[in-house]
Specification:
This protein has helices at about 35-45, 60-70, 90-105, 120-125, 130-140, 155-165, 185-195, 215-225, 230-240, 255-265, 275-290, 310-325, 325-335, 355-360, 370-380, 380-395, and strands spanning about 5, 10-15, 15-20, 50, 80-85, 110-120, 145-150, 170-175, 200, 245-250. Strands 3-4-5-6-7-8-9-10 form an eight-stranded parallel barrel, surrounded by seven helices. It has a two-stranded antiparallel ribbon with strand order 1-2. α2 crosses α3. By secondary structure, it is α/β, with parallel strands linked by helices.
Amino acid sequence: MQYRTDPKSGQSLPVLGLGCMRFPRGKNTRIDMEKTEKMLLSAIERGVNYLDTAYIYSGSEQAVGKILEKNGLREKVLLATKLPHGKCRAYEDFDKFFNIQLERLRTDYIDYYLIHNLGCAADWERLRPMGIERWIAEKKAAGQIRQIGFSFHGAQNGFLELLEAYPWEFTLMQYNYMDENNQAGRAGLRRAHAMGLPVFVMEPLLGGKLASGLPARALKLFQEAGGGDSPAVWALRWLWDQPEVSLVLSGMSSMAQLDENIQAAENALPGRFGAREAELFERVAAVFRESYRVPCTGCNYCMPCPKKVNIPGCFAAYNASYAIHFPEGVKQYVMATGAVGLPGNNASARNCVQCGLCEKKCPQRIAVAQSLRAVSRRLEPLPLRVGYRIGARLTK
């Protein structure tokens, strides 16, 4: 494992961290504790000792806490979790959520604590009258928070404003070769680094799309470049080539993914790419942009929908209909939404009532209602709806 130094604390950080939002789950959607424990123990043993979770990741904090306590590993890891600031209405709420997190994680301190999903300076300004700065100071003085930072999804100017809004000790931003000029982007990365902040990266594979969801033409470009590396490894190497990146979080959900990412991290040295690689990523990005119409990462922050629309599933199918081929999109749509049109088993895009709840929670700032209308037009025209109903009845 390669390591880089946190310039604020002097802490040695692995270049690869374990994002704990996408732990393996069983058919009942609960975390598969046996598989998760094996994966987590293997990761820590091989140097992936930074674990990132959050209050809103269903079951994640509890799973991490139970596994660390059972195996006596709390002192061997750097533990990160996040305050759900949108749920906070008063000073007392900060303690309420923080204490729940300590209980779930079975610990009395957090190494890297984040204000979750700040999108602009106004989000931070809403918290200041509640006493967030005093609360942070008290927790740091008590040793319950070691480093304080924020995670970000928003426009670049909002990120730059937030950097100046408080003396942060680290930041977590979405960044990959498709987001070079999106969200905080490369300019935000460099600004944070210039201010002496360690920069942690999330969504390095854009919710898996840069690993297993690449269009065939983009995949061929990587194959022709030689070396035998998978698209996932290429995407990770693109990040690690930049010295401003302190740590990359990968939401690994299988041992195979863990093995591949760790092997890649063992050679994660900056400055190895040149003009040839830069041109390769530009060409891959151009192909990707042509094929993926909705920038959904499948994070599920938008769920549950009050009308039971499977929003991430709808978008995944819609994108597949362009990136792969139309029949594949139709197949995924049927699987994601159930048998479209049948009462009681309908999670289709057509059910959207444009309530706007999902758009307020979407980290990618997707115009969800508008995009769902596009999904419906493409994957639910009248002839297909008739076909869906007939197919559903034949398989009952």
